[in-house]
């Protein structure tokens, strides 16, 4: 954010004057606060007039793409190429798109005044001074579910205490009672289902077993490039998309499938790749789209570019189904306020810092995102937040590990990111701001534990879209909402997710690839999409608006004390709520009796109260809750 030199000096003087009269929760907080004030002074002295390009883009334009690419950024960085989100001045989206194209940039998609494009870093300075440009930053990264060590340990615990002999086909169908739809002939016929996912390892193996469909069309979108073939082989190729397709096919085996891949197959993709895939599927005139992915690099109030594109697709008659996210245990939510005047954003009475436990050496990513975006519903006050990652030396001294300190210009992102390699150990995150206005601030941690996690507000983008049918994860083994499942509310106060669906299910794709179950809201979302397809084949005259309303309000069983709730929505999908009235026969002879509906044998994993209690205790022990 732009500041005059006078403002900078005033802030430094104020922080220095306040420091002498502060009251701290403990000595350690005093050390952190003292270091924070010192760093704040240095940051203010070093900050120059902000550019329209973010600090990361400025660095790339001058230094080029690094030889060693951080794995968290592999979806937006490639050899001599970066994926950029350009924001045009109001009403200048089309003109800026043309300018970028004239400079040889590869346009992925334009959503209003936001243009997603890929380009060589050297081209950035050629457009940075254009009056058409408001700001530019590296695109956000979308990801699917990853292996969750906590859930894997929980599964091992349950396996050792219960009889787990079970057919792969299909715990989710049983849990939602979707077999009732199938028995009455409603299996998705006449419905076009689109899938956006990250990679399709072992797809042909499952196709030979008739566990996934032969898709009508396929298309891959890889950092601005398009190719007809999906990525199905390679050591780094994820099975995520194959597993997702397997789930939908089990729920709606007679639907017609259109499959899109985003990213190079490794499990992540840029916002621009996802936006391209959305438009391609709309061109195929699909009825339903499932996206078992999301991110946290834009506003969380339903106004991000992808949220807006979800709304556009919904307005065109498409039902968008989205995983809520797996960040419930990796997220902290607070307000940008400093009630104790210690120059740190308030965290807790025990100290204004977040503890981060890194159990193994490796990459650590921390995303700090606050509700102060230029296009957010509350409007922007252009609060400038800085983040400091700290640790203790062997002698006990507080030391700085990394700092996120981007300046904010008009229209710039309300986000800071720390992404670095660190050894195993205990770290501390402290946050400061140039002004304190009580807006929501989110912290998301990947690669480490966050003991002070707050699940509320962890819903991913674009599950934040009002038009999205957003899906929480209901664990078929614990019979509860999964501990990692992301919660609402959105930053503008709406209830999300909308519904719940099964997760932690037996899945052939993941059994072949990793010998484990399919976990995460990434598994729940395709169960909801498949359920919707089968239900829509029963009521083909419904609009997508009517369909979404019915799914939420008429086909769910409440699983929480409050409905809707910020963690389970309206409840678990349940086909027993659907009326299956037999159709009268026109023949004069006595009508045959309707076929009896015989539920299949109950093969659910046995559940005992003591077992559930033990499992929950294990969760708390493992997750530090």
Describe this structure in words.
The chain is of the alpha+beta class and 625 residues long. It is built from 16 helices and 26 strands. It is 28% helix and 23% strand. The chain is globular and about 75 Å long.
List the helices and strands and how they pair.
Layout: H1 5-19, H2 27-46, H3 55-63, E1 77-78, E2 81-88, H4 93-102, E3 106-111, E4 114-119, H5 124-127, E5 133-138, E6 141-143, H6 149-161, H7 171-176, H8 179-183, E7 192-197, H9 203-208, E8 217-222, E9 225-227, H10 240-251, E10 256-262, E11 268-270, H11 271-283, E12 288-291, H12 305-315, E13 319-323, E14 331-335, E15 354-358, E16 362-370, E17 385-392, E18 398-404, E19 415-422, E20 425-433, E21 440-446, E22 469-475, E23 480-481, E24 499-503, H13 508-514, H14 521-538, H15 544-554, E25 556-557, E26 572-573, H16 609-623
Parallel strand pairs: 7-10, 7-12, 8-10, 12-13, 13-22, 22-24
Antiparallel strand pairs: 1-2, 2-4, 2-5, 3-4, 6-11, 8-9, 14-21, 15-20, 16-19, 16-21, 17-18, 17-20, 22-23, 25-26
Helix pairs in contact: 1-2, 6-16, 10-14, 11-12
Question: Which descriptors would you attach to this protein?
Answer:
globular; 5-stranded antiparallel sheet; disordered C terminus; alpha+beta; 625 residues
**What are the segments in which pLDDT stays under 50 over at least 5 consecutive residues?**
1-24, 146-154, 157-168, 584-589, 591-625
Roughly how many Å is the radius of gyration? 25 Å
Number of strands: 26
N-end to C-end Cα span: 38 Å
Q: Into which percent range does the helicity of residues fall? A: 25-40%
Q: Let me know the average pLDDT.
A: 85
- The shape is globular
Question: What fraction of residues sit in β-strands?
Answer: 15-25%
